[in-house]
Write a structure and sequence with these properties.
By secondary structure, the protein is mainly alpha-helical. It has a single domain, classed as Na+/H+ antiporter like fold (Up-down Bundle). 74% of the residues lie in helices and 3% in strands. Helix 3 runs antiparallel to helix 13, helix 6 packs across helix 7 and helix 10 packs parallel to helix 12. It comes from Halocatena marina.
Amino acid sequence: MRDFAVEEADEPVSIHVDLDLVALVAAIVGLGVIAQFLATKYRVPSVLFLIVAGVAIGPEGLGIITTDTFGGTLSTIVGVSVAIIIFDGTFRFEFESVRNAPRAVGWLITIGAALTFFGTALTVRFLLGSDWDIAFLVAALLIATGPTVITPIFAVVSVREEIATTLEMEGIVNDVTASILAIVLFKAMTVQELSPEGFIFLFVERLGLGIIIGLVVASVIWYFLTHVKLPAQEAPQTARLFTLAGAIVAFAIADSVFSEAGIVAAAIAGFALGNLNLPHQESIGQFKQDVTLLVLSFVFITLAALLEFSELLALGVAGLAVVAVLMFLLRPLVVFLSTTSGEFSIRERLFISFVSPRGIIPASVATLFAIRLQTGPPPTDSSGADILLGTVFLVILVTVVVEAGFARQIAAALGVTQTEE
């Protein structure tokens, strides 16, 4: 820590700069850029390199990052970062493409999500012997495939647009709804006095607030960019920065009222703005993609650095059995039941089944829950926290390494890769 004194009036003001933390953030960003470069060069999804980099500098590697590195600010950093990532994902979805999306999307985000939820809960309950509340909490966190992982895959794997759209839309919608469901379940688990009607009310409450705030923020940004005349030279930059700020503001306002409503607000604001024909829309889109790449790199490396192999190994063979059931039994069952309309061939349905990695949101929310279970007021549940964190991180690690890391090879083996022109 180094102190700098600045004389203003007659009173010195001390400015504290933690040079170690600044250097660490710079190193993480640098590793992220290197990971993106390697991903582009070797045509491998960047998340694989990001996880390797995170583990290398975490407690299991060089020990540069620990759980105390960012203090209590990590959940806030991750929350804002996820808002930017989700905002970018929905901004790119045009209403026409959503309206004409494969019917399988509707099934995957409804019946498919429900089957995944109950199937995962049963698997965790009987293979790991956890309590039902922990089993349902794990299941809620693992419903969604991660858009933060899916999007980089299609940057290097060329498949039919319908396949990419299905996986990306499933990931975005289920990430939002699953995170709200997890928050509601955790609240019920800690309060112990929530009726079935209470579950529904809390869920709708957060979803509704997020939608309203997202639409209001999008309307304000649209009005400003279309009705306020700006100098021609500064207009594109102002549009880019104003839109990015909108994502963060929508998240912050909604999340300050209800946990996880912020993710909904960011998603809705992004979708609305992406379909309002904003001036300089192409420039805005490119800028957000660049920002998202940096944010994605930072969050993935940081969370991967917090992996502790002891928690994963403590699950033993039963933990690997849970992962195997989710990857090779439950996911294919859900996909094949959700894609019976003939929109996809058998090989494409297998690709959708075997490329379903989990992402940042379950990792960050699971970490937050585990900390609260271990340090919160009685009754605390340290064993439940270990099962929760270990299972979620094991599923994320294996699915990202295997399914995201080898997505290109899986696509080639199944013959669903399209030749790039």
